[in-house]
Amino acid sequence: MRLSLCTITFRHHLLSLEDIARWAAANNFQGIELWAAHARNMQHMTDRDADWMAAFGLSVPMLSDYLPLDEDLASLRYATSNLCRLARRWGAGKVRTFAGKTASRDISPEGRWRLSARLKDACMIAHDQGCQLLVETHPGTLADTLPSTQRLIEETDHPALGVNFDTLHVWEGGDDPVAAHRALLPHIRHYHLKNVRSRADLAVFEPANVYAAAGKRTGMTALFDGAVDYLEFLDEVFQRDDVDASLEWFGGDCFSILANDARNMRLLKADRDAPIRAGVA
């Protein structure tokens, strides 16, 4: 597994990307998932790119953004093209978006058809620019449950479309993460990993709260301390050879939480692999 941290973690911090990259490399991360807002705000820094990041021993696997699938087609095409251009600068082969702003149970048949058509249009642009477009499993979108996510993949019907599998949000939507993972496996291109103390605390991840500097953080937990069983889930994921994942942390004490979660993941992986190595010996 190639493990990244997300620059969105530091959305309210006064830190440079160089500060983050140096810390990530020192703590054995392999990559940095760039929040597209940060990438756009560094466009004038012409020396910041994939080669610059590689000097730290890191890559940028994905840029995470919010494409305007609900707006006019010209705006969507411009935003998608610009996002893929930024991704190429950083050597990222993947860009992330949400599948609209309406829950699957609330959207009309016409609205669903329109959004899937827009998503396919964005996929065509991404494909032409050498990018994969990933929709994130997320509440309040057309990828909020396993059946709706599967249907969206079928409706869009484009090879550039993939899934950013957010394990917590899959669980939040009522699906078993392991079963959903097995069902979506051919389409999963990236993982977001985070946890919560209990279902009663899920509101802490609502966008209005997450992006607010004074937002509530109580209920966000370290990866192995929350309600989602990551021991079972990661045992499934570790069976894959070529995996990109990001620790998506929105709370306080960023450096300590990220370092400990990454360390615990490495220990879990080593423990899982030990019997295999012993058998080979």
Automatic annotation (TrEMBL):
Gene3D superfamilies: Divalent-metal-dependent TIM barrel enzymes
SUPFAM superfamilies (alphabetical): Xylose isomerase-like
Pfam families noted in UniProt: AP_endonuc_2
Superkingdom of the organism of origin: Bacteria
Domain Xylose isomerase-like TIM barrel span(s) in chain numbering: 22-253
Protein name stated in the entry: 3-dehydroshikimate dehydratase
Organism: Neomesorhizobium albiziae
